[in-house]
């Protein structure tokens, strides 16, 4: 593939590694959603605790 003259390659910024939560049933890494953690391998779901504001 021919590159255009004067074109610079974009450098990819490295993201910091954030270790996720491990599934207690099967041991694989769980997906983090806004309200829960879920395992795609064994379908285990763990809900995050909701902060309640008391008046």
Features:
55 residues; mainly beta; three-stranded antiparallel beta sheet; 3 strands; 15% strand
Can you offer a commentary on this structure?
- With 55 residues, this protein is mainly β.
- It has a domain of 26 residues.
- It is built from no helices and three strands.
- It has a three-stranded antiparallel β-sheet, with no helix packed on it.
- The N and C termini lie far apart (65 Å).
**Can you count the beta strands?**
3
What string, H for helix and E for strand, traces the elements in order? EEE
The residue ranges in which pLDDT falls below 50 over 5 or more consecutive positions are none
Distance between the termini: 65 Å
Query: Which overall shape is indicated by the principal axes computed on the Cα atoms?
Result: elongated
- The rounded Rg comes to 20 Å
How would a crystallographer describe the biggest sheet? 3 strands, antiparallel
Strands in their spatial order, largest beta sheet? 1-2-3
User: What would you call the structural class?
Assistant: mainly beta
Counting DSSP H or I runs of 4 or more residues, the number of helices is 0
Mean pLDDT over all positions: 82
Query: What amount of the residues lies in strands?
Result: 5-15%
Estimate percent helicity.
under 10%
Write the layout of secondary structure elements.
Elements: E1 31-32, E2 36-38, E3 45-47
Summarize the structure.
The chain has 55 residues and is mainly beta.
